[in-house]
Each structure stands twice: as structure tokens, then as C-alpha cells.
Specification:
Strand order of the largest sheet: 1-2-5-4-3
Radius of gyration: 19 Å
Number of helices: 12
Strand content: 5-15%
Order of helices and strands: HHHHEHEHEHEEHEEHHHH
Number of strands: 7
Largest sheet: 5 strands, mixed
Distance between the termini: 18 Å
Helix content: 40-55%
Length: 273
Amino acid sequence: MAKLTDTAPEAERVLVAVYRRQSHGQKWLRLGAMYDSARALHAAGVRLRNSQASPRQILLEWQRTNLGFVRSSPPPQVSEIAPMQFLRETRDVVRILDRLGINYALNGSMACSIHGIDRYTRSADFGVEPFPGREAEFAAAFGPDYYVSESAIREALAKRGTFNVINTATGFKADFFVRGDVPFESAAMNRRLSLTLPDDPEQPIAFLAAEDILLLKLRWYRLGNESSEQQWQDVLGILRTQGERNDAAYLDRWANDLGVADLLVRARNEAIV
């Protein structure tokens, strides 16, 4: 059964060509602009329902509806969201990780937007190397506006799981994925790319490579009972945008190891436009 779509095949080919031509820097700035647009539209919607809504009320509604989190006592000062704030706050986290000497790589939606077809994201996802014994130091590196749970960090390190950091003054959320003790995740971290981006050329940012994001997405898609259309579209977006630049042999090797070789074959067939 054919999937419903609002994009004709020829239009899809045109879009893919556009994304292939865009530089990493252009995609990075588009990602920031999409987040800004989403925040502006959200604020407009809140004010449509309540014309007297304050910046604090708008922030709390954003946290509640988009992050599932509301701090019981928000910071006293809440300002309007400034343009490109999402990118600046992502860089704030990068600076902390660099200062602490913790190896990281941006992954998730932000990496998909860099390597594939861009899409709006509510948070920044960081893959990090384990840093046992430094939980308190890590938590203390964030200011009073941040929600950081030292116990959640400790549990994530012990289980090679996930923890979150949230700026309760702005609604920015960073998700941290501690590298698993498996060969693929070690290989992926070793292949990460350092990109210089136009909003702050003095601060390179590390990203997972396109092939590794694609493989992670296939693994997550399978673990989620192959039900996430967004995960699948991310995979197709990377395959279409990267094209022959993808390392086919690397993909085949790790797809077999991860048990997603059949999904890779299917994705390659569907990615043809």
C-alpha cells in the first residue's frame, strides 16, 4: 500500500538536490531559524488565547506542552526568546563539555538536519563518553537556572543510559546519551566530525558522522517496533541527501552487527527518487 504524501516524486527530487547543495553552515543556521519560528508561533498561540500572557506564562506553557516539565518555582527573570537562542544555548553546553574535557558528539535531530533533510527539534541531543565519579562536578558546571539531577546522572552512567538538563529560564533542553559499552558506539564516537559553523567560527562542534546517525536511527526504529514514521523519514533523508557520499561498506558491516541489515536494504530501496 502506497504511503500518503503531499510531495510529488519530481518535487521530492528537486528538494533533495537543494539539500545536497547546502553547506553544513547553511543547515545549521536553518535549524536555529526553525526553532525561533516554532517559539514565535507558540507565543502567538498563547497570546491568542490570553492577550495578557507574560513572558513567564509563555515559558511555562512551552515547558509543559513541549518538554513535559514545569519547575515549581521558575526563575524570577524571564525574558523574550532572542533570535538563534537555541544555537547559543547548544553552544553553552558544548563549552561546558569542552571545559570538563568530556568527549561528546551531537546526534539526534540536529545531526539529522546537518546530514539530511532539516526538521524542527525541541532539544539538543549529546552522545557523551562515560565520566564516572564526576557527577557532582558536571552538575555544578550548570548555573542556577538549570534543572540538573545528580542522581539521574549517576544512574545514567551506571546503566549507560540517558539524563536531561533543562534551562528553566528559557525552556532549552539537552538530552545526554552515555555511550554504550558496545563496539558500534565506540566506533561511532571515534568517527565524529568537528565542524566549523558560521554563527561562531571560533568554536567547532562535534557531530556524529552521517553513516552513524543513520545506523542509530535504524536501531531506534527497530527497538520502537518499527512504528516511528519520523525515525524512518530521518533515515531516508540522510540516504537521499548524502547519496554516494555514504560509506556503503561501513553501513553494511554495522547494519549486520546491529541486526538491521534488512531495514537498511528497505531504506535504500525507498530512498531512490
